[in-house]
From TrEMBL:
PANTHER family: METHYLMALONYL-COA MUTASE, MITOCHONDRIAL (PTHR48101:SF4), METHYLMALONYL-COA MUTASE, MITOCHONDRIAL-RELATED (PTHR48101). This is methylmalonyl-CoA mutase. CDD domains: MM_CoA_mutase_beta. The lineage of its organism: Bacteria, Bacillati, Actinomycetota, Actinomycetes, Streptosporangiales. It is an enzyme of class 5 (isomerase). It holds the Pfam family MM_CoA_mutase. GO terms for biological process: propionate metabolic process, methylmalonyl pathway. Its EC number is 5.4.99.2. PROSITE patterns: METMALONYL_COA_MUTASE (PS00544). Keywords: Cobalamin, Cobalt, Isomerase. Gene3D superfamilies: Cobalamin-binding domain, Methylmalonyl-CoA mutase. GO terms for molecular function: cobalamin binding; methylmalonyl-CoA mutase activity. One of its GO terms (cellular component) is cytoplasm. The keyword Isomerase applies.
Length: 607
């Protein structure tokens, strides 16, 4: 009988490989593409594959123990608390958002959610949701001592809080009801542009601290900076500046440092960039812990993070793909240590969600919690050299943003001066360019669009007051082009069309013809294909040559001449090369939005 060794070395059968050997092999691969040569120093190889995040945090192709960040997974600032009875992690709060102005419909939706897996309620009130006067009707049947309620009332926060206080008193739940009143005057200023006094938030916080021990008053909603196009560090830096501003106001109002920290929740966006979203939440806890340390708060003062799947990443076109986006984002929220998670329904960009889309959003979290057991690990990403390094880099970038805001006089002053808006606008322009060039592809929108799709119909969602920072959507430029093409098709009975003039056999032109069709369809333009001689019969005013480089050299000039003589207003070429008669090229990495805008103009599609 063979006795197994005490230690099992899984790499024992393989020769040792050091970092330089790996770099040498990578250099060989890069040499084939022309990105490297035999003379490229090994020390430079990783830099050829390293890219920076929008915050300047380097994202390298390889991380090893050499890149380890000091610290141990699960230790302070640890994500999510352990149950007092020692039975393990507490998991996270499944928080569903409700904004239907009809109190009866909202009540039915809330009860259905709570009966089927949701554990708390995020309720929009006022101009963006249920009338404040109908708060009690919307929460009828909800056990307020069991299900925390988080309010979001914007300019009507004070009235909503008063109505909630009265409801708690009537239900006898003042001592046990948990949740948050949602006061965030700085966030409201960022969203609407209107100044809001901090006294509203401090008065509510003092009242909660004195008479409602389980209820908190302030939610620092940093999603407004994300929704404006900001980066992770932009969002974290502004959030931290808001936290510090509220701490100053709360302690000036008579609360202790620990009481002040106890009145604040953080709300952050998570998107389909899984690892950066994980790093963002882990960095948020580090930043919170640092502020708590400097303020002299108790050692166990932990941030309470509410992660919300990004509104900016959601698409109106091919909305079913949103399920994939929100699943990845929800996983990142859980792995990053969120205390509460809200998954936006896949149809959120279309209107008010129906029962099916709410169920999918709810069950996404149920699967992660109950089947994937994601919450059973305290810090799933802890110890990953990659995640730890990105967390550290992001925390430092966010601290730089925070200190910049503080030097400008605090968040209120930075919002008024335009500092925050300028920072975010610069980030958005870089991201927008990446989307336009399809370096950041959007499945179902900029890639693999479905021109024959039938979108689900939903009642319109109430408009949230704006006027401050802009609200952007990653898909907005492509979806605007699709809307123009659809309106043209509805008005004329024919969809805008581009003719793909293919050269040579199918095996030669298929790859570039498929690429061109995918690009033009992203703007709502249908394509038909055939030889250049059949262009006139297609009824299309614009053509695109599709073939191999070799055939372009032999036939592109004659083909372009045939197309122009047949009336082509513009001739594109898919791929490389410049030839007489060819007006422009489309290629991987080209500005697809500019190409589509030009093409719709050539096709007579009005703006």
């Amino acid at each position: 009988m063979t006795v197994p060794p005490d230690e099992l070395d899984l790499a024992a059968a393989f020769p040792p490989v050091d970092r330089d050997r790996w770099r040498d092999l990578v250099r060989g691969v890069l040499r084939k593409s022309g990105a490297a040569t035999d003379d490229t120093p090994l020390a430079d190889v990783e830099g050829l594959l390293t890219r920076d995040s929008y915050d300047g945090v380097p994202l390298a192709p390889l991380y090893t123990a050499e890149d380890a960040v000091p610290g141990r997974p699960g230790l302070a600032p640890a994500p999510r608390p352990v149950r007092p009875d020692g039975e393990g992690l507490a998991g996270w709060d499944v928080r569903q958002h409700h904004a239907d102005p009809d109190p009866a419909a909202t009540r039915d939706a809330i009860l259905a959610d709570l009966e089927n897996g949701a554990t708390s309620v995020w309720l929009a009130l006022g101009a963006g949701g249920v009338p404040v006067a109908s708060l009690a009707d919307a929460l009828r049947g909800v056990y307020l001592d069991l299900a925390p309620v988080v309010l979001d009332a914007g300019a009507e926060t004070a009235a909503a809080a008063e109505a909630f206080f009265e409801l708690l008193a009537a239900r006898g739940a003042a001592a046990s009801a948990a949740g948050n009143l949602g006061a965030d005057p700085l966030g409201r200023t960022a969203r609407t542009g209107a100044a809001a006094p901090l006294a509203e938030a401090t008065d509510l916080a003092v009242r909660c601290a004195r008479g409602f021990p389980a209820l908190r008053a302030i939610t620092v909603d940093a999603t407004v900076y994300h929704d404006a196009g900001g980066s992770d560090a932009d969002e974290l830096g502004a959030a931290l500046a808001a936290v510090v501003a509220y701490l100053r106001a709360l302690t000036d109002a008579g609360l202790t440092v620990d009481e002040a920290f106890g009145q604040i929740d953080l709300r952050l966006a998570v998107n389909a960039d899984q690892f950066l979203s994980i790093a963002k939440l882990r960095a948020a806890r580090r930043l919170w812990a640092r502020v708590a340390e400097v303020c002299g708060a108790a050692e166990d003062t932990a941030a309470r993070l509410h992660a919300v799947t990004s509104a900016a990443m959601m698409t109106r076109r091919d909305p079913w793909v949103n399920m994939l986006r929100t699943t990845v984002a929800a996983f990142a929220a859980g792995a990053g240590g969120a205390d509460a998670v809200t998954v936006r329904p896949f149809d959120a960009r279309i209107g008010l969600p129906d029962a099916f889309s709410r169920r999918i959003a709810r069950n996404t979290q149920t699967l992660l919690l109950e089947e994937a057991n994601l919450a059973r690990v305290m810090d799933p990403a802890g110890g990953s050299w990659y995640v730890e390094a990105v967390t550290d880099g992001l925390a430092h970038a966010a601290w730089d943003r925070f200190t910049e805001i503080e030097r400008a006089g605090g968040l209120a002053a930075a919002l008024e001066s335009g500092l925050v808006a300028e920072r975010i606008a610069a980030t958005w322009e870089r991201r927008r360019a990446d989307i336009a060039h399809r370096r950041a592809p959007l499945t179902g929108v900029s890639e693999f669009p479905n021109l024959a799709e039938t979108l689900p119909e939903r009642p319109p969602a109430p408009l949230v007051p704006g006027g401050g920072l802009p609200t952007v959507r990653y898909a907005q430029d492509f979806e605007d082009l699709r809307d123009r093409a659809d309106a043209h098709a509805a008005a004329t009975g024919a969809r805008p069309r581009v003719y793909l003039a293919v050269l040579g056999p199918v095996a030669v032109h298929t790859a570039r013809a498929s690429f061109a069709a995918n690009l033009f369809q992203a703007g709502g333009i249908e394509t038909v294909s055939g030889p250049p001689e059949e262009f006139a019969a297609s009824g299309a005013p614009v053509a695109c040559l599709c073939s191999s480089d070799r055939l372009y050299a032999e036939q592109a000039e004659d083909a372009a001449r045939i197309l122009k003589e047949a009336g082509a207003r513009r001739v594109w070429l898919a791929g490389k090369g410049s030839f007489p008669g060819v007006d422009d090229r489309i290629f991987a990495g080209c500005d697809a939005v500019a190409v589509l805008t030009t093409t719709l103009g050539d096709l007579g599609v009005n703006r």
